[in-house]
Design brief:
single chain, 331 residues, alpha/beta, TIM Barrel, Bacteriocin As-48, Chain A, 2 domains, 44% helix, binds flavin mononucleotide, tRNA_hU_synthase_CS, DusC, tRNA processing, oxidoreductase
């Protein structure tokens, strides 16, 4: 059975986006944005801010469990924070070893830890020891920092540290987000470890999913920017696996999701600036998945008032042209 995980994406996939994308169907699990652990055991409100789902059994409104992701370099401090997150209700802890941010990497966290597999081993072991045995611990890695020479050692270090699961973003830190993702390495990792594994990187379409599945041999996949660009991507992948061909959402249906997002952000007390910023960011990222997102973005990018932005989306929502299937986007 194919498992689909919504990727953690800092500054982008907040709990409302998790709610909307998991409601769109296809996803089995979500992961919070990373919580950067550097000096202290965080108080409960920090965990609730990143993961409001902790108030509702740590599941999205449509029932998908949400793992809490931690990032840092101090094994004991990560362990303490992990134990507290579990006390608050986290069903699992994911550890971030993939973040490419310069600030984070200067402080020896995120992807810079991949330079030495022992770092991964020590952190995973400390987190594993700090949380109850029935709570899964997982790690998310890239194929390496500057190059891929340590990709197998790092994966083994995660397994030997006691993690139950590994997610691999099939690129090095230096490769950033540049295509391609090197799915062929995932097959080699899968053969070298015995814990379960999720493939990640550059799945934008059902066809990409099929190629990634065939090359990696994985049965679990994490979707990031592809699910932001096409909110129904996970649903279409699941339909494909069930032998059905689900037609891609039309732009009007996507606009319903964006309009719902504005309402949810307002409900949470987000400033109008924040609401407008998030909508522009999302529409901008949708340009890779939906043709009408480009003219829409050009029109909304200068709008500052959320009311005006909302009206524009609402008008497009009623436009008959956007109720029909779209032409494929030119590559
Ligand atoms: C804006 C942005 C924020 C991200 N934040 C996180 C994060 O908080 N934790 C994490 O493990 N990965 C993070 N990632 C990496 C994604 O989870 C994912 O590994 C990456 O985007 C590759 O998958 P994709 O090609 O499907 O997008 C982020 C990526 C982007 C583009």
């Amino acid at each position: 059975m194919t498992q689909l995980v919504l990727a953690p994406m800092e500054g982008l996939v907040d709990w409302r986006v998790r709610q909307l994308l998991s409601a769109a169907g296809g996803f089995d699990q979500c992961v919070t944005e990373f919580i950067r652990v550097s000096q202290t055991l965080f108080p409960a409100h920090v965990f609730y801010r990143y993961c409001p789902e902790l108030h509702q059994g740590c599941k999205t409104a449509s029932g998908q469990p949400v793992l809490v992701q931690l990032m840092g370099h101090d094994p004991d401090l990560l362990g303490e924070n992990a134990a507290f997150a579990v006390e608050l209700g986290a069903p699992g802890i994911d550890i971030n070893f993939g973040c490419p941010s310069k600030t984070v990497n200067k402080r020896e966290a995120g992807a810079s830890l991949l330079k030495c597999p022992e770092n991964l081993f020590n952190i995973v072991r400390a987190v594993r020891a700090a949380v109850p045995g029935h709570i899964p611990v997982s790690a998310k890695i890239r194929l390496g920092y500057a190059d891929k020479t340590l990709f197998l050692e790092n994966a083994r270090a995660v397994e030997e540290g006691g993690a139950q699961h590994l997610t691999v973003h099939a690129r090095t830190k230096m490769e950033g987000y540049k295509p391609p993702a090197h799915w062929e390495y995932l097959a080699r990792i899968r053969e070298a470890i015995s814990i379960t594994m999720t493939a990640n990187g550059e799945i934008w379409t059902v066809e990409d999913y099929i190629r990634c599945r065939d090359i990696s041999g994985c049965t679990s996949f994490m979707l990031g920017r592809g699910a932001i660009a096409c909110p129904d991507l996970a649903a279409r992948i699941k339909a494909h696996e069930a032998g059905e061909d689900l037609q891609k959402q039309c732009w009007a249906d996507v606009l319903d999701i964006l309009l719902a997002y504005i309402d949810l952000l307002a409900q949470d007390g987000a400033t109008e600036n924040h609401q407008a910023g998030r909508i522009k960011q999302w529409v901008s990222m949708m340009r890779k998945g939906h043709g009408p997102a480009s003219p829409c973005f050009d029109e909304i990018k200068r709008i500052r008032e959320i009311g005006e932005l909302r009206e524009k989306l609402q008008r497009d929502r009623e436009n008959p042209e956007y109720q029909r299937p779209e032409e494929p986007i030119a590559a």
